[in-house]
Write a structure and sequence with these properties.
By secondary structure, the protein is an alpha/beta fold. It has nine helices and 13 strands. It is globular, with a radius of gyration of 20 Å.
Protein backbone atom coordinates (compact mmCIF):
# COMPACT_ATOMS: atom_id res chain seq x y z
CA UNK A 1 0.00 0.00 0.00
CA UNK A 2 1.32 3.44 -0.90
CA UNK A 3 2.49 5.40 2.13
CA UNK A 4 5.02 7.87 3.52
CA UNK A 5 7.02 7.96 6.76
CA UNK A 6 6.20 10.79 9.19
CA UNK A 7 8.47 11.48 12.15
CA UNK A 8 7.95 14.13 14.86
CA UNK A 9 11.06 14.52 17.04
CA UNK A 10 10.72 16.20 20.42
CA UNK A 11 13.16 16.92 23.19
CA UNK A 12 12.06 13.88 25.22
CA UNK A 13 9.94 11.76 22.86
CA UNK A 14 9.34 10.94 19.22
CA UNK A 15 6.03 10.17 17.50
CA UNK A 16 5.94 8.50 14.12
CA UNK A 17 3.48 7.07 11.62
CA UNK A 18 3.09 5.53 8.19
CA UNK A 19 0.59 7.76 6.41
CA UNK A 20 -1.64 6.82 3.45
CA UNK A 21 -2.55 9.29 0.65
CA UNK A 22 -5.97 9.96 2.22
CA UNK A 23 -4.42 10.87 5.58
CA UNK A 24 -5.07 7.56 7.31
CA UNK A 25 -2.40 6.61 9.87
CA UNK A 26 -1.62 3.02 8.87
CA UNK A 27 0.90 2.34 11.63
CA UNK A 28 2.00 4.44 14.62
CA UNK A 29 4.78 4.25 17.15
CA UNK A 30 6.28 6.30 19.96
CA UNK A 31 9.82 6.14 21.22
CA UNK A 32 11.98 8.09 23.68
CA UNK A 33 14.43 10.59 22.20
CA UNK A 34 18.05 9.82 23.05
CA UNK A 35 19.25 12.10 25.86
CA UNK A 36 21.34 15.03 24.54
CA UNK A 37 23.84 14.38 27.33
CA UNK A 38 24.93 11.29 25.37
CA UNK A 39 26.10 13.50 22.52
CA UNK A 40 24.94 14.70 19.12
CA UNK A 41 25.87 11.50 17.30
CA UNK A 42 23.81 9.39 19.69
CA UNK A 43 20.75 11.63 19.28
CA UNK A 44 21.00 11.50 15.49
CA UNK A 45 21.58 7.73 15.53
CA UNK A 46 18.42 7.25 17.59
CA UNK A 47 16.38 9.19 15.02
CA UNK A 48 17.88 7.30 12.08
CA UNK A 49 17.31 3.95 13.79
CA UNK A 50 13.66 4.85 14.38
CA UNK A 51 13.27 5.87 10.74
CA UNK A 52 14.88 2.62 9.62
CA UNK A 53 12.50 0.60 11.80
CA UNK A 54 9.55 2.45 10.28
CA UNK A 55 10.78 1.62 6.79
CA UNK A 56 10.98 -2.04 7.81
CA UNK A 57 7.46 -1.88 9.27
CA UNK A 58 6.16 -0.53 5.99
CA UNK A 59 7.77 -3.32 4.03
CA UNK A 60 6.50 -5.97 6.43
CA UNK A 61 2.97 -4.67 7.07
CA UNK A 62 2.17 -2.89 3.82
CA UNK A 63 4.33 -4.75 1.33
CA UNK A 64 5.96 -1.67 -0.16
CA UNK A 65 8.70 0.86 0.61
CA UNK A 66 7.73 4.40 1.63
CA UNK A 67 7.27 6.83 -1.25
CA UNK A 68 8.78 9.67 0.78
CA UNK A 69 9.54 10.75 4.33
CA UNK A 70 9.01 13.84 6.45
CA UNK A 71 10.77 14.65 9.72
CA UNK A 72 10.06 17.65 11.92
CA UNK A 73 12.32 18.82 14.73
CA UNK A 74 12.52 21.75 17.16
CA UNK A 75 14.98 24.62 16.94
CA UNK A 76 16.37 26.48 13.96
CA UNK A 77 15.92 24.72 10.61
CA UNK A 78 17.30 25.45 7.15
CA UNK A 79 14.54 23.72 5.22
CA UNK A 80 16.04 24.45 1.79
CA UNK A 81 19.39 22.89 2.73
CA UNK A 82 17.79 20.13 4.80
CA UNK A 83 19.89 21.05 7.84
CA UNK A 84 18.94 21.11 11.51
CA UNK A 85 20.95 24.22 12.35
CA UNK A 86 20.55 24.33 16.14
CA UNK A 87 18.42 22.94 18.94
CA UNK A 88 19.16 23.41 22.63
CA UNK A 89 16.62 20.69 23.46
CA UNK A 90 18.37 18.12 21.27
CA UNK A 91 21.90 19.35 21.83
CA UNK A 92 22.91 19.55 18.18
CA UNK A 93 24.28 21.97 15.61
CA UNK A 94 24.43 21.82 11.81
CA UNK A 95 23.09 18.30 11.32
CA UNK A 96 22.50 17.42 7.62
CA UNK A 97 19.45 15.45 8.69
CA UNK A 98 17.69 15.29 5.32
CA UNK A 99 20.72 13.72 3.63
CA UNK A 100 21.24 11.30 6.52
CA UNK A 101 17.58 10.22 6.45
CA UNK A 102 17.63 9.82 2.67
CA UNK A 103 20.69 7.57 2.92
CA UNK A 104 19.20 5.47 5.72
CA UNK A 105 15.83 5.07 3.97
CA UNK A 106 17.17 4.51 0.46
CA UNK A 107 15.31 7.54 -0.86
CA UNK A 108 16.47 10.44 -3.04
CA UNK A 109 16.97 13.63 -1.01
CA UNK A 110 14.16 15.27 -2.98
CA UNK A 111 11.76 12.73 -1.47
CA UNK A 112 12.70 13.65 2.12
CA UNK A 113 11.36 16.79 3.79
CA UNK A 114 12.79 18.39 6.93
CA UNK A 115 10.64 20.89 8.79
CA UNK A 116 10.07 22.73 12.05
CA UNK A 117 7.87 20.90 14.55
CA UNK A 118 5.54 23.80 15.37
CA UNK A 119 5.23 24.98 11.77
CA UNK A 120 4.39 21.39 10.83
CA UNK A 121 1.70 21.39 13.50
CA UNK A 122 0.39 24.62 12.03
CA UNK A 123 0.35 23.03 8.57
CA UNK A 124 -1.69 20.10 9.86
CA UNK A 125 -4.16 22.37 11.67
CA UNK A 126 -4.47 24.44 8.50
CA UNK A 127 -5.14 21.56 6.11
CA UNK A 128 -6.82 19.05 8.40
CA UNK A 129 -7.86 20.82 11.59
CA UNK A 130 -9.08 24.11 13.04
CA UNK A 131 -7.70 26.22 10.18
CA UNK A 132 -9.25 24.20 7.37
CA UNK A 133 -10.80 26.60 4.86
CA UNK A 134 -9.15 29.67 6.45
CA UNK A 135 -6.87 31.50 4.01
CA UNK A 136 -4.81 33.28 6.69
CA UNK A 137 -4.35 32.16 10.27
CA UNK A 138 -1.85 32.35 13.10
CA UNK A 139 -1.16 29.14 15.04
CA UNK A 140 0.23 29.59 18.55
CA UNK A 141 1.57 26.63 20.52
CA UNK A 142 1.64 27.25 24.28
CA UNK A 143 4.02 24.66 25.67
CA UNK A 144 7.25 24.80 27.65
CA UNK A 145 7.91 27.85 25.48
CA UNK A 146 5.77 29.58 22.88
CA UNK A 147 6.14 29.20 19.12
CA UNK A 148 3.86 29.75 16.18
CA UNK A 149 3.24 29.51 12.48
CA UNK A 150 1.59 31.83 9.98
CA UNK A 151 -0.67 30.00 7.54
CA UNK A 152 -1.21 31.61 4.13
CA UNK A 153 -3.23 29.91 1.40
CA UNK A 154 -2.44 26.35 2.48
CA UNK A 155 1.23 26.82 3.33
CA UNK A 156 3.16 27.96 6.39
CA UNK A 157 5.36 31.02 5.98
CA UNK A 158 8.83 30.21 7.30
CA UNK A 159 10.22 33.72 6.79
CA UNK A 160 13.38 34.86 5.01
CA UNK A 161 15.67 33.16 7.54
CA UNK A 162 13.53 30.27 8.79
CA UNK A 163 12.37 32.08 11.92
CA UNK A 164 8.85 33.09 10.89
CA UNK A 165 6.15 32.76 13.53
CA UNK A 166 8.37 33.16 16.61
CA UNK A 167 5.71 35.07 18.53
CA UNK A 168 7.10 33.70 21.80
CA UNK A 169 9.97 36.14 21.46
CA UNK A 170 7.89 39.25 20.95
CA UNK A 171 8.67 41.49 23.94
CA UNK A 172 5.45 42.20 25.85
CA UNK A 173 6.97 43.16 29.22
CA UNK A 174 10.02 45.39 28.56
CA UNK A 175 12.66 44.86 31.21
CA UNK A 176 10.87 41.75 32.48
CA UNK A 177 12.17 38.26 33.13
CA UNK A 178 15.23 37.08 31.24
CA UNK A 179 14.49 34.82 28.28
CA UNK A 180 16.68 32.06 26.90
CA UNK A 181 16.89 33.99 23.63
CA UNK A 182 18.83 36.80 25.34
CA UNK A 183 16.01 39.33 25.56
CA UNK A 184 13.93 40.28 28.60
CA UNK A 185 10.16 40.24 28.87
CA UNK A 186 9.43 37.92 25.94
CA UNK A 187 5.90 36.55 25.69
CA UNK A 188 7.02 33.03 26.58
CA UNK A 189 8.53 34.24 29.88
CA UNK A 190 5.00 35.13 31.04
CA UNK A 191 2.38 33.17 29.09
CA UNK A 192 3.89 29.77 28.26
CA UNK A 193 2.87 26.67 30.18
CA UNK A 194 6.37 26.64 31.59
CA UNK A 195 6.09 30.23 32.82
CA UNK A 196 2.66 29.64 34.35
CA UNK A 197 3.96 26.51 36.08
CA UNK A 198 6.87 28.41 37.60
CA UNK A 199 4.72 31.36 38.68
CA UNK A 200 2.08 29.11 40.25
CA UNK A 201 4.74 27.02 42.01
CA UNK A 202 6.03 30.23 43.60
CA UNK A 203 2.57 31.56 44.45
CA UNK A 204 1.20 28.23 45.68
CA UNK A 205 4.27 27.15 47.57
CA UNK A 206 4.43 23.74 45.82
CA UNK A 207 7.62 23.14 43.83
CA UNK A 208 5.94 20.42 41.75
CA UNK A 209 2.90 22.52 40.78
CA UNK A 210 2.30 22.98 37.05
CA UNK A 211 0.09 24.96 34.68
CA UNK A 212 -2.66 22.33 34.77
CA UNK A 213 -2.73 22.63 38.59
CA UNK A 214 -3.02 26.39 38.22
CA UNK A 215 -5.95 26.07 35.80
CA UNK A 216 -7.75 23.76 38.20
CA UNK A 217 -7.16 26.19 41.05
CA UNK A 218 -8.54 29.03 38.93
CA UNK A 219 -11.68 27.00 38.28
CA UNK A 220 -11.95 26.37 42.05
CA UNK A 221 -11.80 30.11 42.74
CA UNK A 222 -8.30 30.41 44.21
CA UNK A 223 -7.34 34.13 44.12
CA UNK A 224 -3.58 33.47 43.96
CA UNK A 225 -4.07 31.20 40.97
CA UNK A 226 -6.34 33.80 39.37
CA UNK A 227 -3.61 36.44 39.69
CA UNK A 228 -1.06 34.18 37.96
CA UNK A 229 -3.57 33.20 35.27
CA UNK A 230 -4.72 36.76 34.62
CA UNK A 231 -1.14 37.93 34.09
CA UNK A 232 -0.53 35.16 31.55
CA UNK A 233 -3.79 35.91 29.75
CA UNK A 234 -3.00 39.64 29.64
CA UNK A 235 0.46 39.02 28.19
CA UNK A 236 -0.90 36.59 25.61
CA UNK A 237 -3.59 39.09 24.59
CA UNK A 238 -0.89 41.75 24.16
CA UNK A 239 1.09 39.41 21.91
CA UNK A 240 -1.96 38.50 19.83
CA UNK A 241 -2.87 42.17 19.32
CA UNK A 242 0.69 42.89 18.12
CA UNK A 243 0.38 39.98 15.68
CA UNK A 244 -3.06 41.15 14.57
CA UNK A 245 -1.71 44.61 13.80
CA UNK A 246 1.20 43.24 11.77
CA UNK A 247 -0.30 40.17 10.09
CA UNK A 248 -4.11 40.57 10.18
CA UNK A 249 -4.96 36.85 10.33
CA UNK A 250 -8.59 35.82 10.03
CA UNK A 251 -8.16 33.32 12.86
CA UNK A 252 -5.79 32.66 15.73
CA UNK A 253 -5.55 28.95 16.61
CA UNK A 254 -4.41 28.21 20.16
CA UNK A 255 -2.70 24.87 20.76
CA UNK A 256 -0.17 23.30 23.08
CA UNK A 257 -0.48 22.09 26.65
CA UNK A 258 -1.85 25.32 28.09
CA UNK A 259 -4.71 25.26 25.59
CA UNK A 260 -6.00 22.09 27.24
CA UNK A 261 -7.53 24.41 29.85
CA UNK A 262 -10.24 25.10 27.25
CA UNK A 263 -12.69 27.82 28.22
CA UNK A 264 -10.69 28.66 31.34
CA UNK A 265 -8.11 30.11 28.95
CA UNK A 266 -10.07 31.00 25.83
CA UNK A 267 -13.00 32.85 27.42
CA UNK A 268 -10.92 35.50 29.24
CA UNK A 269 -8.42 35.60 26.37
CA UNK A 270 -11.12 36.49 23.83
CA UNK A 271 -12.36 39.27 26.13
CA UNK A 272 -8.83 40.60 26.73
CA UNK A 273 -8.05 40.70 23.00
CA UNK A 274 -11.29 42.57 22.23
CA UNK A 275 -10.53 45.12 24.98
CA UNK A 276 -7.17 45.91 23.39
CA UNK A 277 -8.17 46.19 19.75
CA UNK A 278 -8.87 49.63 18.31
CA UNK A 279 -8.94 49.82 14.51
CA UNK A 280 -8.05 46.16 13.94
CA UNK A 281 -10.64 43.62 12.92
CA UNK A 282 -10.83 40.94 15.65
CA UNK A 283 -9.61 37.48 14.66
CA UNK A 284 -11.64 34.40 15.40
CA UNK A 285 -9.94 32.81 18.41
CA UNK A 286 -10.29 29.02 18.30
CA UNK A 287 -8.71 25.97 19.95
CA UNK A 288 -6.52 23.56 17.99
CA UNK A 289 -8.21 20.21 17.38
CA UNK A 290 -5.42 17.78 16.45
CA UNK A 291 -3.72 17.59 19.84
CA UNK A 292 -0.25 16.08 20.05
CA UNK A 293 -0.77 14.30 16.71
CA UNK A 294 -0.44 17.63 14.85
CA UNK A 295 3.33 17.51 14.42
CA UNK A 296 3.32 13.95 13.10
CA UNK A 297 0.43 14.68 10.73
CA UNK A 298 2.30 17.78 9.54
CA UNK A 299 5.40 15.67 8.88
CA UNK A 300 3.21 13.36 6.80
CA UNK A 301 1.87 16.28 4.81
CA UNK A 302 5.42 17.51 4.14
CA UNK A 303 6.34 14.03 2.98
CA UNK A 304 3.40 13.80 0.59
CA UNK A 305 4.28 17.25 -0.74
CA UNK A 306 7.82 15.99 -1.35
CA UNK A 307 6.37 12.94 -3.11
CA UNK A 308 4.46 15.23 -5.43
CA UNK A 309 1.00 14.98 -3.90
CA UNK A 310 -0.98 16.00 -0.83
CA UNK A 311 -3.20 13.97 1.45
CA UNK A 312 -6.81 14.62 0.55
CA UNK A 313 -8.49 14.58 3.93
CA UNK A 314 -8.13 13.45 7.51
CA UNK A 315 -9.75 10.07 7.88
CA UNK A 316 -11.78 9.17 10.95
CA UNK A 317 -9.53 8.51 13.91
CA UNK A 318 -6.38 10.06 12.42
CA UNK A 319 -6.20 12.79 15.07
CA UNK A 320 -5.37 10.34 17.85
CA UNK A 321 -1.99 8.68 18.03
CA UNK A 322 -2.13 5.07 19.24
CA UNK A 323 0.66 3.06 20.82
CA UNK A 324 1.54 -0.13 18.98
Amino acid sequence: MEHVIALDVGGTGMKAALVAPDGTLLHEERRATTRPSLGQEAVVRGILDFAGDLRAAGLERLGAPAAAAGAVVPGTIDEAAGTAVFSANLGWRDVPLRALLAERLGLPEAAVALGHDVRAGALAEGRLGAGRGVDRFLFIALGTGIAGGLGIDGRIEAGAHGCGGEIGHVVVRPGGAACGCGQRGCLETVASAGAVSRAWARAGGRPDADAADCARAVEAGDPAARAVWDEAVAALADGIVIAQSLLDPAAVIIGGGLAEAGGTLLTPLRAAVLERLTFQRPPELVPAVLGDAAGCLGAGLLAWDAAGGTTLAAAEGTTEMRNE
